[in-house]
Amino acid sequence: MQNHKKIPERILAAQLILSGEAILAGFSGGSDSAALCHALAGLRAELGFSLELFYVQHGLRDEESRSEEEFVRDWAKRYNCPISVQSVNVRELAARQKLSIETAARRLRYQAFAQKAKTGGFDKVALAHHAKDQAETVLLHFLRGSGVDGLTGMKPQNGIYIRPLLSAGKEEIENYLQSEKVPWRQDSSNEDCRYRRNRVRQELLPYLQTAFNPNLVQTLTQTAGQMRDLQEYLKEQTEKEFALTGCCQDGRVVLAGKRLKELLPYMQQMLIRRAVQAAKGDTVNLEAVHVARALSLLAKENGKQEDLVESWRVKKERGDLVFFQAFLPGDQC
Known about the structure:
- The protein is an alpha/beta fold.
- It folds into 2 domains: 3-131 and 152-191, Rossmann fold (3-Layer(aba) Sandwich); 250-325, 2-Layer Sandwich (Uridine Diphospho-n-acetylenolpyruvylglucosamine Reductase, domain 3), CATH 3.30.465.60.
- It is 53% helix and 14% strand.
- The protein has 13 helices and 11 strands.
- The protein has helices at 3-14, 31-47, 63-78, 90-97, 101-120, 131-143, 147-151, 170-180, 196-211, 216-245, 257-261, 265-280, 288-296; strands spanning 22-26, 50-57, 83-87, 124-126, 157-158, 161-162, 246-249, 252-255, 305-307, 312-317, 320-325.
- The strands form 2 sheets. The chain has a 6-stranded mixed β-sheet, sandwiched between helices. Strands 7-8-11-10-9 form a 5-stranded antiparallel β-sheet.
- Helix 6 crosses helix 9 (196-211), helix 10 (216-245) packs across helix 12 (265-280) and helix 12 crosses helix 13.
- The longest helix has 30 residues, at 216-245.
- It is globular.
- The chain starts with a helix and ends in an 8-residue tail after the last strand.
């Protein structure tokens, strides 16, 4: 397959976009999103979908951010793509909720995507994650002890979010940009090793490839696929058990301690994660240490509490584990 055809062919093969759909594509001006958006723009007529680009201005790099916004607007005009821009305050959220800059930026970015998709009537949001991003994600999740759920990595489709390039290699993307003479910009924050993902990208992954496995990206992406198959089975079993063990009461989630003690350790861990998801709405930043803290309460007296993720806590009451938000009333149940 010729370089200039590879990326569009991957999008076609993924079959994630249907005729008549309205697609919102995340566009940062970087190489990955430039390749995705350029290919999508070229496929609009063939597949019969509408396309709008969406740039989230994080405001973390002052003059560079302003220059980047000007670039993405010019880029969209050049390729005849409508574009919307939304500014978010990453530093404010990070300070208020005691989050890392990475986590706050990601949370606000996805909130912006979801809001724009809803108000704009878009069917799907296309993101430019590729195979190396997948490998980095699996490594990061492994390092924080996130279990099978985290080792599945990113899905080609997760709700409204689609990732048509998830099987594409970074070199393949770079070759496409060069062949098609597609302009893009380097984001200086991608080189900043204060951020965990950048340390994995710049230091850990290259070291592991050199010292242990030159095909590590492929190995990790294959592992993610295998873990997704396993996850589906475990998810079915967990849902069956959660229906017997868990319940929602007044904005709190309760796990029956007596039944929880009778289960195998791994199912106990899965149920803790499921309870947090039911209470909080997701399991973002939930690590193995938090799960262990919750389970440790089974051997302690009633009234004992443990901190979990962000402002969420778990308390032992009448032998049961109760998950609740310490400062704000939860309403996810």
